[in-house]
Design brief:
- By secondary structure, this protein is mostly helical.
- Helices cover about 80% and strands about 0% of the residues.
- Helix 4 (about 80-100) packs antiparallel against helix 7.
- The protein is globular and about 55 Å long.
Length: about 190
């Protein structure tokens, strides 16, 4: 995927010479896009194999919606991103049936996700050039998304089978956890550079 991303970025720059200084951003963006498509496809397939296709869809939707706006930890290579992300997702989907008896975890996941979204996020990757207003907008959208997700999880808990609320809450919490890890990584890098 890295080679394909580089080829497409080169083609973009060839057709738009004014964008030469954005080559690495194009490559990074394309790698993220391909990684997301492949990882989500793999999660859907593996979720079906595990007999949990709907849990996989619920987890993916809640995870991706929040992760896109709060950011977080990123792997250094496409292969690590794909493998790590897929394993992370499969483990989350696999533990959903064991959460049914631990309703308190729903509330804990929501609280941690809200705190992370409001006071830790967004964690922006260095290759993702954003202005302060764009970062502020991303943060505002992240807050709105975490609020909507919390309301949906409450509705799911009250009106649907428990697995739906648990898979949604775990997706939201999984995004928040990567945001926290990303913030710790950024602090570690900043500390080692000073």
């Amino acid at each position: 995927m890295e080679k394909l991303s580089e080829k497409i970025a080169t083609w973009i720059i060839t057709n738009d010479p004014d964008s030469r200084d954005k080559y690495e951003i194009f490559v990074y963006t394309l790698q993220c896009l391909f990684g997301n498509v492949m990882a989500n496809g793999a999660l859907l397939i593996l979720g079906a194999i595990l007999g949990k296709p709907l849990e996989a869809v619920s987890w993916i939707l809640f995870y991706n919606a929040l992760r896109l706006h709060i950011g977080g930890s990123h792997a250094k290579t496409f292969a690590r991103c794909f493998l790590g992300g897929t394993i992370y997702g499969v483990l989350c989907i696999a533990i959903i049936p064991y959460l049914d008896t631990y309703t308190v975890l729903l509330a804990l996941a929501a609280i941690i996700s809200v705190i992370t979204t409001f006071w830790v996020a967004p964690v922006i990757h260095p290759n993702r050039l954003m202005s302060e207003s764009q970062i502020s907008k991303k943060h505002r959208l992240g807050k709105q998304i975490v609020f909507v997700e919390c309301v949906l999880i409450l509705v799911f808990y009250l009106c649907f089978p428990p697995w739906l609320a648990h898979s949604a809450a775990l997706g939201m919490f999984s995004a928040a956890l990567l945001c926290i890890i990303g913030k710790l990584q950024q602090k570690s890098v900043a500390h080692s550079e000073s």
